[in-house]
Design goal:
- Helix 2 (32-71) packs antiparallel against helix 3 (74-85) and helix 5 (125-149) packs across helix 7.
- The chain has a two-stranded antiparallel ribbon with strand order 1-2.
- With 356 residues, it is mostly helical.
- The longest helix is centred in the first third of the chain and has 40 residues, at 32-71.
- It has 2 domains: 10-85; 106-126 and 186-355, Peptidase M41 (Methane Monooxygenase Hydroxylase, Chain G, domain 1, Up-down Bundle).
- The protein is globular, with a radius of gyration of 27 Å.
- It has helices spanning 13-27, 32-71, 74-85, 106-111, 125-149, 153-174, 177-190, 192-211, 223-230, 244-252, 257-278, 285-297, 302-322, 324-335, 340-349; strands at 216-220, 238-241.
- Helix content is 70%, strand content 3%.
- The two termini are 35 Å apart.
- It is built from 15 helices and 2 strands.
- One of its GO terms (biological process) is proteolysis.
């Protein structure tokens, strides 16, 4: 007993209720309100103890998940999550409410407050402006140096060839990774909006993946962080997933509708998040192109591809709207560099059972 309240266990429920009844009789049969308050207090304490046990168990599971992911054992990590998804510990994994899949018109999307033109054609104005300013600064510096050092035609030719060679090398060898690294690093340091947008974008990918039953494996929030972690300029910032089931289906040439639906929504989750927060998307053009390429490789006609994309847009945005609190807290955790397991814990804590 703690503070006059008895926590009931299954092994002693009969004797415990007998004890409660005896206490109620001692208080007098006319004290109905006091009896109700006493029982409510007992049940409330029992519920709090159960919730505490669930959270403790979830933390243990997620620590194991982090350990398996750090070892590179994706299958073991996914098994742990799937095995716990049927219990209260990881109730949200793959549990998102989804809209029926059918052909949705653009008018139906507009009725739900969705303008696809602002979502499916992202243009990064922030990095675009930075790139233009860098080019202007470089040209100004070159002209200044030419005048100061009295460069001749030969020096001008050498400098032009060096610049052209560097640009070509970056495009061919690193797929533009070096220029992306420079622009992204500058963007994160001079534009707080750009920095926040990238975090929110990746939080959208992470949340939608988890709620649809795809386990996130890790994330990076800048090209510099991705380069430091992977040691390659060909790797950009983003969220990666435990996707061996999907890649196996791709290799076999048979992708199930369920798996395609999941990855269609995950691909569009970043631009959908930006759209909800800012009214338009800037980042995520590569995500949209990747989805278009996937649908094309699967032999989708344009009409069928449009139907798939519209459904995915509507489904993703409605999920994000429903779980705005979880996404906000997740973005905060990701900005602090929390582990995948800690991020999942944040999601579970901020989504009520009635919302899934």
């Amino acid at each position: 007993m703690n503070g006059g309240c008895l926590l009931l266990s299954s092994s002693s429920s009969s004797s415990s209720w007998s004890f409660i009844n005896q206490r109620l009789q001692l208080w007098g049969t006319s004290s109905t309100s006091r009896h109700k308050l006493f029982i409510r207090s007992c049940l409330s304490s029992a519920a709090e103890a159960a919730e505490s046990g669930v959270e403790s168990g979830r933390r243990v599971i997620l620590e194991k998940v982090d350990k398996e992911l750090s070892k590179g054992d994706d299958r073991a990590a996914l098994f742990l999550v799937k095995d716990s998804a049927s219990s209260a510990a990881l109730k949200c994994f793959g549990a998102a409410q989804q809209v029926p899949q059918r052909l949705y018109t653009l008018s139906e999307l507009k009725l739900n407050g969705i303008e696809t033109a602002s979502l499916l054609a992202p243009k990064d104005n922030t990095l675009g402006a930075i790139e233009r300013n860098l080019l202007i600064a470089a040209l100004f510096g070159f002209v200044t140096a030419w005048n100061v050092f009295d460069f001749g035609p030969e020096e001008l030719l050498y400098v032009s060839l060096a610049v052209f060679f560097s640009w070509t090398l970056d495009i061919v060898a690193f797929a533009g990774g070096l220029s992306n690294l420079v622009l992204d690093t500058i963007g994160h340091n001079i534009s707080q909006k750009y920095h926040n947008r990238v975090i929110e974008h990746e939080a959208g990918h992470f949340l939608i993946a988890y709620l649809l039953g795809i386990l996130p494996k890790g994330y990076t929030l800048s090209s510099l962080e991705a380069f430091q972690r992977e040691g390659s300029l060909n790797v950009q910032a983003g969220t990666v997933f435990v996707d061996f089931e999907f890649t196996e289906q791709i290799s076999a040439g048979r992708v199930t509708a369920t798996m395609l639906n999941r990855f269609s929504c995950i691909a569009l989750a970043g631009v959908a998040t930006e759209y909800l927060l800012y009214g338009y998307a800037e980042g995520g053009l590569s995500d949209v192109k990747t989805l278009d390429g996937l649908l094309s490789s699967l032999g989708f006609t344009q009409k069928k591809a449009d139907s798939q994309v519209r459904w995915a847009v509507l489904n993703t945005i409605l999920i994000l709207r429903r779980h705005e609190k979880a996404r906000t807290q997740l973005a905060k955790a990701m900005s602090e560099g929390k582990s995948v397991g800690s991020c999942i814990d944040i999601i579970e804590k901020n989504i009520d059972e009635t919302d899934i």
